[in-house]
Amino acid sequence: MSWLITIAVLVLIGFILDREIYFYEGAHLGPRVQSWLYDRWSKKYDAGKRESQLRDSEMLVQPLLDVLKNVSEPFVLDFATGTGRLSYALTSHPDFKGRIIALDFSQGMLEQAASKLTRASSSEQNGAARRAPLSAKVDERVELLRHLSLPLPFPDATFDVVCALEVLELFPNMEEPLAEFSRVLRPGGILLTSRGTEESGRKAKVKSKSDFGLLLTKNDFANFQIAPWWKLFDRVITIKNGSSHPVGGRKLTDVMLCAVCEQTQWERKASTLRCKSCGKEMPVTKEGIVLN
Asked: Residue 279: pLDDT band by 50, 70, 90 thresholds?
């Protein structure tokens, strides 16, 4: 009988690991383990997202630009950018004139984003001037940052827009990231996020529309719109209470807080960012990813 118990225990452990790793995507294992998992999945990650990505311009970018019609050059944080789907869709749209910081905790995912955004930049250059050499760099409007965990390395009221798609369910609770998004958004700024639907099957992580709205209200958001996006997620657009002038396009070196001295004084070199105040250095990969 002991061998039957051993087999049963192994099957149970396998089931729990499968649910945790592939269903909940390592949500309870901590950011370092999660980032390692996403590094492993990064090259094939887009394969399961193609159906929804085909409608990114229609379902994500255009509704966001409609809300931003009076902000000519929005400064955007693309939180948990993954393979850069939203940054790619934004920079591919002719009406987007802003700048983006695309942040993720997985270097592998950011490398895929860099490849995607480089292709977009090359295509744009080739269309504008066919005799010009193709760009080998990521679209200059996007900067890539690897950052492992909250809090975010930015001062209060830094961004006009925060985008955080398909990610709230990966936190132990949703209040912590929502509070951070609210903090780094200027008053009157826009949050584009998503609500996991009942069809996702993640019962412990699904918030009803009314409960999700209460979470937004608690974190200083109002006028939220929850609309169908694709079967596993609804699209959510909401506005932070208050009003202020648009931030406008900035660079990462203008807004990133040093982890040591909390200053925003950076000197950029070919393969590092160096804090002018305390001397802390951060590597920059050949793809242009800043490793915080």
From this structure: very high
Strands (E), the chain: 75-79, 99-104, 142-146, 159-164, 185-196, 221-230, 233-240, 266-268, 272-275, 281-283, 289-291
Q: What are phi and psi of 12, to 5 degrees?
A: -65, -45
Q: How many CA atoms lie within 13 A of 135 on its CB side?
A: 21
Residues 188 and 239 in one domain: yes
pLDDT digits (tens, 9 = 90+) for 58-90: 999 999 999 999 999 999 999 999 999 999 999
Rounded Cα–Cα distance for residues 233 and 60 (Å): 12
The residue type found at 8 is A
154 and 192 inside one domain: yes
What span, in angstroms and rounded, lies between the C-alpha atoms of 214 and 194? Answer: 14
- Least Cα distance to 75 among 124, 142, 137 occurs for 142
- Domain span at residue 8 reads 2-47
Residues 201-213: pLDDT tens digits? 767 678 999 999 9
Buried b (16+ CB within 10 A) or exposed e, 132-144: eeebeebbebbbb
Q: How confident is residue 289, by pLDDT bands cut at 50, 70 and 90?
A: very high
Number of domains present in the structure of the chain? 2
Kindly state the tokens that stand for 146: 């690897």
The tokens describing 177, both together, are: 């990231």
Counting residues of the chain whose pLDDT is more than 70, the rounded percentage is: 83
pTM beyond 0.85, yes or no:
yes
C-alpha to C-alpha distance for 243 and 188, rounded to whole angstroms: 4
Do residues 157 and 244 lie in contact, with contact meaning Cβ atoms separated by under 8 Å? Answer: yes
